[in-house]
Amino acid sequence: MSAVQTPSPAQDDTRRRSPLAEVLFSLMRSRTFLVGLFIVLFWVACALFGEHFAPYDPLADDIINALAPPSREHWFGTDQIGRDVFSRVIVGSRDILTVAPLATLLATVAGTALGLLTGYFRGIVDDVVSRILEAFMAIPVVIVALLAIVALGTSKATVIVVIGLSFAPIIARTVRSAVLAERELDYVAAAQLRHESAFHTMFVEILPNVIPPILVETTVRLGYAIFAVATLSFMGFGIQPPSPDWGLSISSNYGMIGGGFWWTVLFDALAIASLVIGVNLAADGVHGALND
């Protein structure tokens, strides 16, 4: 007669973990996520406390030292009016890390609501709303943003609203697909038999079960939002002077590259790239943890 095998402590701990604890445990084991999180947290720290450890005032000009190359005094050199590039890169993360996350949050809230609405009601509601969303998605985000900003005026609030509403249809499509699958499950039918309202069924019954794809889509959209904000600032329709915003700094100094003053643009471009890469790595880690 074979002996009864008892579960090991490790197996017992795994069985006792809640789904949330399992996801967090997977994230902490993901090198991709941890590297991405480290990069993002570095720039968040710069946004919050950059002014305290930046060696120079990022807005103070010094014409005498204009276009000085990288040196011990100015690690990243100076720009065309003598401002310290290193200080501007450090402090310049503040605006982009304010506007992009708020735009992503707005996109997530609006997209989730639209996705729940179209996926749950289907029929004519789905047809009408989906056609409108598809029309918006057919136009490049930057084009939509430019048209809206020209009409509404340039401000941080306008950029947040424009980018948020531009990304909402993409999130709505993802949520709609998840809701269509969930709608056919027994717990939704049970809620309908209890005569629960459509609002209760969508936001109390279905929404908690479609959180994973929403989280993944949100982290991915954050990377796109950062790039969109930097692009609009570069074109003069995003963050406005005298902010040390990265995209704005690249736009102001772009003409200096031809004269050999590469440092006025390079470090801001690397900052944007590193932040986008960090967010994408974190998004890949979240996706992997939720699919384990």
TrEMBL record:
<feature type="transmembrane region" description="Helical">
    <location>
        <begin position="32"/>
        <end position="50"/>
    </location>
</feature>
<keyword id="KW-0813">Transport</keyword>
<keyword id="KW-0812">Transmembrane</keyword>
<keyword id="KW-1133">Transmembrane helix</keyword>
<dbReference type="InterPro" id="IPR025966">
    <property type="entry name" value="OppC_N"/>
</dbReference>
<dbReference type="GO" id="GO:0055085">
    <property type="term" value="P:transmembrane transport"/>
</dbReference>
<dbReference type="InterPro" id="IPR050366">
    <property type="entry name" value="BP-dependent_transpt_permease"/>
</dbReference>
<feature type="domain" description="ABC transmembrane type-1">
    <location>
        <begin position="93"/>
        <end position="283"/>
    </location>
</feature>
<dbReference type="Pfam" id="PF12911">
    <property type="entry name" value="OppC_N"/>
</dbReference>
<feature type="transmembrane region" description="Helical">
    <location>
        <begin position="157"/>
        <end position="175"/>
    </location>
</feature>
<dbReference type="InterPro" id="IPR000515">
    <property type="entry name" value="MetI-like"/>
</dbReference>
<dbReference type="GO" id="GO:0005886">
    <property type="term" value="C:plasma membrane"/>
</dbReference>
<feature type="transmembrane region" description="Helical">
    <location>
        <begin position="96"/>
        <end position="120"/>
    </location>
</feature>
<keyword id="KW-1003">Cell membrane</keyword>
<keyword id="KW-0472">Membrane</keyword>
<feature type="transmembrane region" description="Helical">
    <location>
        <begin position="132"/>
        <end position="151"/>
    </location>
</feature>
<feature type="transmembrane region" description="Helical">
    <location>
        <begin position="222"/>
        <end position="240"/>
    </location>
</feature>
<comment type="similarity">
    <text>Belongs to the binding-protein-dependent transport system permease family.</text>
</comment>
<protein>
    <submittedName>
        <fullName>ABC transporter permease</fullName>
    </submittedName>
</protein>
<dbReference type="InterPro" id="IPR035906">
    <property type="entry name" value="MetI-like_sf"/>
</dbReference>
<dbReference type="Pfam" id="PF00528">
    <property type="entry name" value="BPD_transp_1"/>
</dbReference>
<feature type="transmembrane region" description="Helical">
    <location>
        <begin position="260"/>
        <end position="283"/>
    </location>
</feature>
